[in-house]
Amino acid sequence: MKRSFLVPLAVCIALFTAHHALGQNLEKDTLKASGTIKGVAPGVLQIATAEGDMWLLKLEAKPQDVTFSGIAEKSFLRTGMFVEFRAQVSKKGVVAEPVASLTVFTPSEGRPPGVDPDGAGGGDGGLFNESKDDKKPEPKTKKSTRLKTDDTIYRVAGAISKVGRAGDLTVSAGGAQVKFNLAEDCKISIEVNDLSFVSIGDRVTVDGWFLKGRPGEGAANKIEVTAANPLTDGSKKKPAKPVKEPKTSLKGAKGE
Q1: pLDDT tens sequence across 56-89
Q2: What whole-number distance in Å separates Cα of residue 40 and Cα of residue 141?
Q3: Which of 23-37, 183-197, 216-230 has the lowest mean pLDDT?
Q4: Residues linked to residue 41 through DSSP beta bridges, in sequence order
Q5: What gap in Å lies between CA 208 and CA 218, rounded to an integer?
Q6: What is the per-residue DSSP string for 202-249?
Q7: Which phi and psi (to 5°) does residue 89 adopt?
Q8: Are strands 203-211 and 66-72 parallel, antiparallel or unpaired?
Q9: Burial class (CB in 10 A: 0-12, 13-18, 19+), 198
Q10: Of 2, 35, 155, 173, which is least packed with CB atoms within 10 Å of its CB?
């Protein structure tokens, strides 16, 4: 299913901005809401709750307080995306078996790019950065079977640098290049700390605040979004029809 963005009318945004400017000295109240995304614009999110309330929210959340999750099809993957998977990797940086599951993620200090034994920290491409002591020749009886008997599972995390026509991919992980193919039924998950892939109809939960006396308008400082549909090739998106301008003020407006 193709996904598309919805841009609220400029009039709504202008009214929203003006109301916030005029209400800077008003008392704030806590906001906790869950619902469906109805509109997206730079710095602004419009949601409808299950109770029928419509909220227009200014986005004040820090990256670590923003999560977007979902699933995707293979066509969604493109160069520049950071992906993470676990597999056996040869010294030449080749994954022999098709990758059965993969996650698109946002790199962080606790989740860095790299190639390391599964469960180990670092992200320094340890599989390929051997010290001189590590490179001592092995006995002839083991030399020919070293790669065949090495069943270590590595965590591979890095940016996609190439998407081949035959479905092969290459990632740059901590300075190392790792080549692999996706299994026919590969499960692709999305776990990112931004709202780049948000679309109309996605489910959302927000924590934030609103100005007392101005229900329907507020700000979100924590946002969790779950995609309603699998993400596909972003280049095939079609713009959605704009929202009809509401007949009443956004204050206390009801959802569709």
Answers
A1: 999 999 999 999 999 999 999 999 999 999 999 9
A2: 63
A3: 23-37
A4: 44
A5: 7
A6: -EEEEEEEEETT-TTEEEEEEEEEE-SS-B--GGG--PPPPPPPPSS-
A7: -130, 130
A8: unpaired
A9: buried
A10: 2
Q: How far apart are CA 178 and CA 86, in angstroms?
A: 12
Q: Which two tokens mark 124?
A: 């320094």
User: Which amino acid appears at position 24 of this protein?
Assistant: Q
If we measure between CA atoms, which residue out of 195, 218, 221, 184 comes closest to residue 206? 221
In sequence order, what are the beta bridge partners of 58? 44, 219
H-run or E-run covering 72? strand 66-72
- Cα distances from 52 to residues 48, 118, 219, 228, in angstroms, run 6, 46, 18, 19
Return the C-alpha torsion angle 24, 215, 40, 254, nearest 10.
Answer: -160
Contact (Cβ atoms closer than 8 angstroms) between residue 178 and residue 185: no
Chain segment 111-134, per-residue pLDDT in tens: 999 999 987 655 554 566 654 444
pTM of the model: 0.74
Counted residue by residue, the chain has a size of 256
- Phi–psi pair at 22, nearest 5 degrees: -75, -20
DSSP type of residue 64: G
Q: For residues 108 and 103, what is the distance between their CA atoms, to the nearest angstrom?
A: 14
Show the 3-state SS of 174-198: CCEEEEEEEEEEEEEEEEECCCCCC
